[in-house]
Design brief:
The protein is an alpha/beta fold. The protein has 17 helices and 16 strands. It has two domains: 206 residues, Rossmann fold, CATH 3.40.50; 161 residues, 3-Layer(aba) Sandwich (Rossmann fold). Pathway: Bacterial outer membrane biogenesis; LPS core biosynthesis.
């Protein structure tokens, strides 16, 4: 192991030892009950079978984005690692080997030789790249991005990222702006192909009947957003009594907290819970429904007139995928803090970006919005050509 890698490994070991009490404590929470023991204690998390093409994605969105990339490959040659439990649930559906990505300390002992390692977006792990490359894998960054907001922090550690990107063989990035930022950090062999999420086939897995009246979906919401959206909905509901609101929190561990919030803010009003009040049938008698179920969002976009896309009304989240409501032609509103979705927003027409304190007014006049639509595409062929060439060499 080279001196820098050895120092990095030793620092990772020290950090790991110091964090063990917290890791054990957090492992008791349902959100981390599976992922933390697997990642930090290797529980039920053996190495991949050697000789495959290893894709690493962080969470749900990135793991779903893998689907068109896996189509030309056989499930037997694919390996998929994720960080989150929800991402792992998606990975299980591909029928290939799937694991949690272990903490970096374990990389020298866990990583087996693979033909290629394909890492999505901004998952920059020094020992993952260094060890995988040393074991013979071609290291590729795909859908790579460096947001304008986070780039100054990367630039302060340019000395480190120059070493990290020296362990990367090829970068396929989302935009020219991303390419310029990677080059400033010392990366090379970079090609712009667009955002691979444009290659996703957005589909509804269930076909629900369109409810009478107007349906509004509060999609992928975070703490603090539900209360704001509910206030805006109540103003619209006063003028449009036939309107209904579906609240879909981003994280399932917040379902109970959001239910309590709705109870507190909807005193005397009819609210329902998807899981216990009949699913879609709850819309018939209840103006507000908490959707405490996973995998339903596209199904709900398909029957919704208006989407209020969460994650962008909070300064620290960065927004969520605007392509999905646009695919179903929802009139769509979102907040101003969409920095993680800036590239995707370029490909969506007629999406309304509003300040937090303007949401109520914007929703009151939402019938004046045009349906959101998608206006772009992505070329995955350079990635497939590169993968084929390197696998053959």
């Amino acid at each position: 192991m080279k001196p820098f890698s050895l120092i990095y490994f030793l620092l990772s070991a020290l950090l790991y030892v110091a964090a063990i009490p917290l890791l054990l404590l957090f492992s008791l929470r349902s959100k981390y009950r599976e992922s933390l023991p697997a990642r930090f204690f290797l529980k039920g998390n053996p190495p991949f079978t050697p000789g495959g093409i290893w894709f690493h994605a962080c969470s749900v969105g990135e793991t779903r984005a893998l689907k068109p990339l896996l189509a030309p490959l056989s499930p037997e040659e694919v390996r998929i690692s994720t960080i989150t439990q929800t991402g792992q649930d998606v990975a299980k559906g591909y029928g290939s080997e799937h694991r949690y990505l272990p903490y970096e300390l374990f990389m020298p002992f866990w990583v087996k030789p693979q033909r290629a390692l394909v890492v999505l977006e901004a998952e920059f792990w020094y020992l993952l790249f260094a060890v995988a490359r040393a074991r013979g894998a071609e290291v590729v960054l795909l859908n790579a991005r460096l947001s304008e907001r986070s780039f100054p922090r990367y630039l302060k550690l340019r000395w480190f990222y120059r070493r990290l990107f020296a362990r990367v063989d090829k970068i396929f990035c989302q935009s020219d702006a991303d390419k310029a930022r990677f080059e400033q950090l010392g990366a090379s062999n970079i090609e712009v192909i667009g955002n691979i999420k444009l290659a996703q086939s957005v589909t509804a897995t269930k076909r629900y009947p369109k409810p009478e009246g107007e349906t509004i979906v509060a999609a992928s919401t975070h703490e603090g957003e539900e209360a704001m959206i509910l206030e805006a909905f109540r103003a619209r509901h006063a003028e449009h009594p036939d309107s209904r609101l579906l609240v879909v929190p981003r994280h399932p561990e917040r379902f109970d907290a959001v239910w309590e919030l709705l109870h507190g803010q909807c005193d005397g009003e009819r609210i329902a819970r998807w899981s216990t009040d009949g699913g879609i049938d709850a819309l018939g008698e209840h103006p507000v429904v908490l959707v405490d179920a996973m995998g339903e969002l596209n199904n709900l976009y398909a029957i919704s007139d208006i989407a209020v896309l969460g994650g962008a009304f909070k300064a620290d989240v960065g927004g969520h995928n605007p392509l999905e409501p646009a695919h179903f032609g929802c009139r769509t509103l979102t907040g101003t803090h969409f920095f993680n979705q800036r590239e995707l927003m370029r490909y969506v027409d007629n999406i309304a970006v509003v300040e937090n304190d303007a949401l109520t007014e914007a929703l009151l006049h939402a019938e004046g919005l045009r349906p959101a639509s998608i206006n772009g595409s992505v070329d995955l062929q350079p990635f497939f050509d590169y993968l084929t060439k390197e696998s053959a060499s």
